Amino acid sequence: MTDNQSLTPLKMLLFSFHATNTIILSFLPLYLKDKGLNGTEVGWVLAVGPLAAIIAQPFWGYMSDKYKTVKRILLICIVGLLISSIVFFQMEGLIAILLAGFVFYFFTSPIGGLGDSLAQRRADELHVSFGTIRTWGSIGFATSSLIIGQILSATDIQYMIWPYLFFGTVALIVAWKLADVRVESEPVRLRDINVLIKNKPFIFFLFFMMFITISHRANDSFIGLYIAQLGGSESLVGVAWFVGVISEAAVFALAGRWFRRYHTLVFVIFAGIAYTARWFIYAAAGDPYFIIMLQFLHGITFGVFYLAALEYVTRLIPNLLQSTGHLMFYAAFFGISGIIGSLVGGALIDSLGGGALYTVLGCFAAAGTLFLAIYHVMSITKKRRAV
């Protein structure tokens, strides 16, 4: 089997999982609005996902490192995704949706992190660019956002469960054919996690990074509602995500050509500056088509930021704890940041509107960029003194 053939199931898994992910990310807020929830209540439901992720991602990452398998953990989580999604989409009322949503996110939230962790390891094994593998997730996201947006506009938002189950089933089928990771070491133990917790550069980086990722996750949750506030439809929400994620896929695909020319933190800081400018520009939007035209900035912000941050974190953590470290990164990026972004964003868009929300997001991104720039300068100074 060639290297490319061995990567095909992994690429298809990333494609199909992120196709399901875009359905939740792009259309769940609109689905919940259709169920009768207000902006604040939508924020509560969206915050349950990151809350579950904070528990689920380190747990499943630890199980993956302990038993030295990513494939088996992925299979368990995808089966859980399919079963729990059926229950979640049948719920009525805020409390029932919150409880079912927690179980649903407990299984779904680790899949992206585990898939990216496996892709990072396979890329290292085969000496290929991580971005060329990860770009298939972005292609799946973009394809799904465009097609499903058109379907839901022509039918009804309540039918979003059917394309979700279709792509989830495809993910389960291709996951059986994955090549698992090979780790030549003793199984990880609970006390080994202290190595990560005591890793000050790792912990400081996660904390400073979160000022930017809070703004990113709030946009994920509420860009659909903001476009709707500006007069856009479900199909326009789908087009907005399509434009954004196509630019993200291009960045992932080309990253191997330019990524190693500068320190990874330089790219993180550059993306932070771009995030700051993006949110302030969005705050001034008066038309949904203006947002769509500027969605190419998603690749320059998230695409660059995520690739650079993940590579930087990979350098900071030992091989024995790669899955755990990657999912701690994921828990900070999508978990804690998602809770804060969803709760604050829901309250702001409900009370002051989308323009005020994006102004606050611009301030968050600016603060995070400043902190990371100071962190980078201090890291360089410390290394020079050590020499």
UniProtKB/TrEMBL annotation:
| GO cellular component annotations of the record | plasma membrane
Task: Write out the entry's keywords from A to Z.
Answer: Cell inner membrane, Cell membrane, Membrane, Transmembrane, Transmembrane helix, Transport
Is the keyword Hydrolase assigned to this protein?
A: no
- The answer to whether the entry has keyword Flavoprotein is no
Q: Which residues cross the membrane?
A: 12-32, 44-61, 73-89, 95-115, 136-155, 161-179, 200-218, 238-255, 262-282, 288-308, 329-349, 355-375
> One GO molecular function term?
lactose binding
- Alphabetical list of Pfam families matching this protein: MFS_1_like (PF12832)
Question: Which compartment or compartments is the protein found in?
Answer: Cell inner membrane
Specify the protein's topology with respect to the membrane.
Multi-pass membrane protein
Major facilitator superfamily associated domain mapped to chain residues: 8-357
Return the InterPro entries for the record: HcaT-like, MFS_assoc_dom, MFS_trans_sf
Report the principal subcellular site: membrane
Q: Domain of life of the organism in this record? A: Bacteria
Entry-linked NCBIfam families: mfs
Q: Which PANTHER family match?
A: 3-PHENYLPROPIONIC ACID TRANSPORTER-RELATED, BLL5896 PROTEIN
The name under which this protein is listed is MFS transporter
Q: Which organism is it from?
A: Lentibacillus cibarius
Source taxonomy lineage?
Bacteria, Bacillati, Bacillota, Bacilli, Bacillales
